[in-house]
From TrEMBL:
NCBIfam families: sce7725_fam. It comes from Paraflavisolibacter caeni. It comes from the Bacteria. This is Sce7725 family protein.
Length: 312
C-alpha cells in the first residue's frame, strides 16, 4: 500500500483531484494531506472529489510546516465538513514528537467529539510501548508512520504489522534547479519492491517534491522537470534541465528545452502514464502550461506509475 504525503498547496490538491478517478474505491493508494494554508475552501473541494470517488485519505491536524499553528483550526473544519465528518474512508493524521505532545493532541480530538475517527500517527520520534498500548486501547489507530530518520530499528516492532508504514523522504532536493545539471539520472526508491519483506504494511514518501517546504516562488534561471520511471532495480528519477540558464527571462523557452529532453527519453519507455502523454502533447503543440502545472504533472506521473506497479 502506498500512502504519499502531499502538502495542501494549490497544485498538490489539483493533482489529487485529477488522480482521484484513477484510484476510485482503491485500497492500494491512500493520500495523506498536510494542510499548509489557513484558508480551507480549496482543501475542502479536493476532499469532496476524494470522497466522491471513495478514496481512502488522511488530513494531518497539526502540520509541521505552513500557516496553521493550532490543530483546533482543522478540527473545527472537520466537524463542519460533511465529506470528512461522515466519511468512514477518512482518517485524522497526527505528527507525534513526544508523549506529552501526542497526549495533548489526542485530548483535543476527544474534546471535538472525534475520538471514534480512525487515526494515523506519524512518529517523528519514539514513544514507549506502555504509552502506545494506552493510546491504541482508547483510540482507533489505523496506521503508524515510522519516519526513516528514527534510527531505532526495533522501534517498528512496538506496533502491529498491519499498521506499520515506512515514511522516507527519497527525493534529493537541491537549492537551485541548475544544480541538477550533472545529476540528471539518479536512483529514487526500491521500497515498493521490498516493503513487505521489511515487515511494513505500506510505504510513504513526499513524491517528486520532497519533505523540505518552501512557500511562494520566483522566476527561475533554469527550468527542471522531475520524472520518475521504472528500471530493473526499482524507481529512478530523471531531472530534465533547460540549457539557457543565464537569466530568468523566457521561462516558456526554457521549458521547451527541458521538455525536448523529456520527450526524447519517454519515447523509449514501455509504459507511459497519462502525465507523460500530456507532456508529449505540450511538446507537439509548443504549449507552455506554467510552472505549477509542470510540478502537478511530475506528481501525477509518480502517482500513476506507483499505482501501475502495485496493481500490475
Amino acid at each position: 500500500m502506498y500512502l504519499p504525503v502531499l502538502r495542501g498547496k494549490q497544485y498538490e490538491l489539483l493533482a489529487l483531484r485529477e488522480f482521484s478517478k484513477e484510484i476510485r474505491g482503491s485500497d492500494i493508494i491512500a493520500p495523506v494531506i498536510e494542510p499548509v494554508k489557513s484558508e480551507f475552501k480549496t482543501l475542502e473541494t479536493a476532499c469532496n472529489f476524494l470522497a466522491k470517488e471513495d478514496v481512502c485519505f488522511t488530513i494531518i491536524i497539526n502540520p509541521s510546516v505552513g500557516e496553521i499553528k493550532n490543530p483546533e483550526h482543522i478540527l473545527r473544519q472537520i466537524n463542519n465538513t460533511k465529506c470528512l465528518r461522515d466519511n468512514p474512508r477518512f482518517q485524522i493524521g497526527i505528527h507525534s514528537y513526544n508523549e506529552s505532545q501526542l497526549e495533548f493532541i489526542l485530548g483535543l480530538i476527544k474534546e471535538y467529539g472525534l475520538e471514534n475517527q480512525e487515526l494515523i500517527i506519524i512518529h517523528n520520534d519514539t514513544i514507549s510501548e506502555d504509552f502506545y498500548r494506552a493510546v491504541s486501547g482508547a483510540y482507533k489507530v489505523k496506521f503508524n508512520f515510522l519516519h526513516e530518520k528514527i534510527k531505532v530499528r526495533r522501534y517498528k516492532y512496538l506496533f502491529p504489522s498491519e499498521t506499520r508504514v515506512l515514511l522516507d523522504d527519497v527525493f534529493e532536493s537541491k537549492p537551485k534547479n541548475s544544480d541538477y545539471i550533472g545529476f540528471e539520472d539518479e536512483p529514487f526508491s526500491d521500497i515498493y519492491l521490498i516493503y513487505k519483506e521489511e515487515n511494513y504494511f505500506g510505504f510513504s514518501d513526499y513524491l517528486t517534491i520532497g519533505e523540505q517546504y518552501t512557500d511562494g516562488g520566483f522566476l527561475p534561471y533554469a527550468v527542471v522537470i522531475h520524472l520518475t520511471y521504472e528500471s530493473r532495480d526499482g524507481l529512478r528519477i530523471k531531472h530534465f534541465v533547460s540549457d539557457s540558464n543565464d537569466d530568468y527571462h523566457d521561462t516558456p523557452g526554457k521549458f521547451a528545452e527541458a521538455l525536448g529532453k523529456l520527450v526524447s527519453f519517454t519515447a523509449t519507455l514501455p509504459f507511459k502514464t497519462k502525465a507523460i502523454k500530456t507532456f508529449e502533447e505540450y511538446y507537439n503543440s509548443s504549449h507552455y502550461p506554467g510552472l505549477g502545472s509542470i510540478k502537478k504533472l511530475s506528481m501525477l506521473n509518480h502517482l500513476e506509475l506507483v499505482n501501475y506497479l502495485l496493481t500490475k
